[in-house]
Amino acid sequence: MSLIDISGNLLFVAFIAYLVATLLFGGSIKQSNATGKNTDKWGKVAIVVTIIGLLSQLGYFITRWVYSGHAPVSNMFEFTTAFGMFIVGAFVLIYFIYRVTALGLVALPVALLIIAYASMFPSEVSPLVPSLQSYWLTIHVITAALGQSILAISAVAGLIYLLKVVDLKKPSKQRFWLEAVMFFLVVVVGFVVATSVFNMMDYDSTYSYLDKEGKERQIDYNMPPLFGMNEYKAVEEHGMSPLVEMPALINAKKLTTVVWSLLVGSILYLLIRLIARRRISAIFQPFVKRVNLQLVDEIGYRSVIIGFPVFTLGALIFAMIWAQLAWSRFWGWDPKEVWALITWLFYAAFLHLRLSKGWEGEKSAWLALIGFGIILFNLIAVNLILAGLHSYASA
Amino acid sequence: MENIICACGHSNPYGTKLCEKCGRPLTEEGKQTKVVDMRYDGTAIRSKTYNTTFVDKIWNFFSSVKVGIALIIITLVAASIGTILPQAIYVNAPEPSKAEYYEKVYGVLGKLYNNLGLSHLYNTWWFQILVGMLAISIIVASLDRGLPLHKSLKNQRVKRHESFMKRQRIIAEGQVPNADETLDKVEQKMSELKYRVRRDGSALLAERGRFARYGPYINHVGLIIFLTGVMLRLVPGFYVDETIWIREGETRAIPGMDGYFIKNNKFILETHDEKQQGGEASQGVNVMAKNYQTDITLYKQPEGALPGDSDNLEKLRDYSIRVNHPLKENGFALYQMNYRLNELRQMNFNLVNKASEESQGQIEIDLTNPKKEYDLGNGSSVQILVYTPDFDGFENGEPQTKTSIPNNPAFLFRMTTPETPKGEVSFVEIRKPPLEPLGENKYRMKFAGAEMRNSSNFTIRKDSTIPILFVGGVIFMIGVVIGSYWNHRRLWLQVDPDGRVLMAAHVNKNMFSMKKDLDTVTTFAGLPPYKDQLDKPEDDNKSAKPGTKEKEGDSTL
Amino acid sequence: MEKKKKRLVIRTIILAVLVFAIGYTVYGTATKDKVELLAVGSKAPDFTLVDLNGEKHKLSDYKGQGVFLNFWGTWCKPCEKEMPAMDRQYKVFKDQGVQTLAVNIAQTDFEVQNFVDRYELTFPVVIDKTKSVMTAYNVGNLPATLLIDPDGKVAKIVTGEMTEAKIASYMELVKPK
Question: What ipTM score was computed for the predicted complex, to two decimals?
């Protein structure tokens, strides 16, 4: 078996491990809820399984590095999987400092979703284009991913905090938005499900179209085309024809993907609501019943204060050094650079609001969620929708 | 603006919250609160005190943290607007026609976006002013808070008044058997824990990590240096940004670098053998490229030589410029940016008899230096009467050229053969039948192949502001690391001769780490148990024992 | 009250410096993109180029005389249109102390010679093969003409096509007194 196959298998093992660990963490909490004791047994097993998963994923990372000859952070798939791995790593670190089991219940599923999302993108090892052939690829991208993953933990802590304090029985803005976050997570699942199902069906249709500059191009759809490209003509069509034609400005294929994800996600969400007979927030609320709010708030804050310097170093400073070397200018205001700056400014505001204006507790938790949202925007929208030197891949 | 005289006799600047000498609260508000605000150690924030003149009002406005945060958020939102549509620099159209491009490709939104200046958002006067205001806010707020804080930390006294101590977040009160022994034990333990211990009679102050308080101010300094560096780019001489297209074989003066010349010897493009990688294909990034580089020679004119004089060029060195490996010389750097393949360099023609298809010979026309006449050596010759590199029609019977680049070369030939001594005239354009203005010819020039060459595009950059930016960045990182990863801990202890003990502790952040130290010293020196005055009782947190909540890792975190 | 006054002075100075810095930045950004040919009044950079006969021409050779310095290319239609007029005025002014020098931007000898022959131009034509002079003079769009006075300073910069009357008036402008 070649190194790359081993690598893929190790990733799969890690994925399963995280899944099992999530269940074990859930079990541990349920146990301690029931008995009123801080039972360590389930928790201990859960963390051990998590670490096994992490080591396995590290194995995937290293073997892929050796096989491809470059740090495996060079395309959408590689970067996002690494991001998921670092989140698990950051979680393990924080767990050993604070021992809050509920963290695992949220951090691991988030990591799972991220890895699943990553797997929907082409995962072939591809040689590096000239601009990526530099050891700065390793330094800048890995440090930035590390910084983002530590900051992500603050969103995990924030989510736990909100799950505990938001009153789900009364209608309120908070209740709505908390559930909206849950819905978003389900839509991500929807994306994974839709992509996987159509992949398994080997769906593939090709169309020709006119791009925004009037040139004729071809495009492949991997999902049934809800939306058609500008002036599309079918080259090879299966199953259905586009329902609506889009102007040249809009990438109908990406829109199709997004809408399929929303559709499947919404259906999943409705099913969950029907079966569970309550909001998803309400499903999770009992699990965070015994969480120490002050502690979780502290974790949220600490993750930012630890992660902010790392993020600055990786996503801004190393990025600027590399950009100057590769593109002759250390800052070009391209969308990815701008959104990295926006992320940085946001967390600076977070720290100032917390340290100088006393914004703690619930306010801080919402801010942490928004911050993570910005990080995700940079990962998803900027890479896939907004064009630029930095965009990695198309869905 | 009268000074405030504290009960202990010390005169404090107007606006001071806690007496500089003994720590007594000086304001009514301070006397009421359970735990005082120790963010600035009780010093007067200058802006909140002087509010009379217009200058003071402006100053106070910028000193406010609320205003600073608002500025951060406005900047963040403004920056995001610039990503809705691509900025003008990234638009793939020549400079004058960019406005049309926005309208054509993005419609009404595009037209509006461009007209409002949003396509140049980061260069607009208002965005720069926004960032400028942020800079003013950073400077003013730091001066207002940092200087008094520094003074206070430097001059703080060991012995604090009871009312100060009782208003700290962590306090402990009780009795100990032996005052001196307790003090000695505490001193010993705290020194062991790497605190700096000072004593003043029956009072003790153990302090650690004071430098951490300066973190924010240091990182602010770093930011200002960085912004100053950015500003200096506009000062002439600091910044050069030029671009050059140069074909293989050409030698050209380097714009922006007086006296230097560059020769493009060869452009090399290596591609990967495997088929196109799906993901990056549509981005315009050349995915097939494994490596591309230009092998160049760098020349310098001798001292005192004038522009235009390319005799006596001194060869400096050969170099291969490729991405991530710019050519560096004398503070300048040349970056491999782009390339174009396959421009015509030479065209070969055969002089052919139309009827017999027999060739009289071949001429090779070097498009960089066409000759007036080509003698085929057998009595035949070909003259080039007119050469237009980029033919785009006739005007007044004359062939016109659109540019000087051989995109569409055309020739007016006169073919002379022994059979046609007077010569025949033929206008030849690529891939078109020849035009024969003076009547039908017996001969024609038949295209017999071409040679191409490639061109490279370099960006020439000189940026003397980079060291400044780098220093600013480093200082920023130092400040942020100091402020984030260390904290400032203090423990005050007062033991009266009769054994009555009063202890207070303060940390600027991360109380958990201090509590670990407090537990250690409490146990060792037999101090009364302390309480956290901000502790809210949690019904369901069974493991909540004050001070021993959770395990702590590294005490620096 | 001394302290108060001192405070006011310091604050005013700091704010003033900052406002100035920002103002400079805004102004500098707004004006830096207007890259022009050399400014009127500045010294015209000396250069040396070779004409079609192999002779060298230095700008400083013409010190004491006015110079009509024209940058052109065969693809530039306005350049083409004004060349005959330039030639005529050249003949008029060359004995009055105004010389004409036409700098071609890096085309082949063939094309330049062809052009000169076709229009029977008599003024010196040189080719800037390495675009070195073009760079030194910051020439962007063609045609571009600089009028240089007998002291070697740039008296006027003209971009765009010129009528014969204008050519004459420009040459008149740099006639030595």
Answer: 0.91
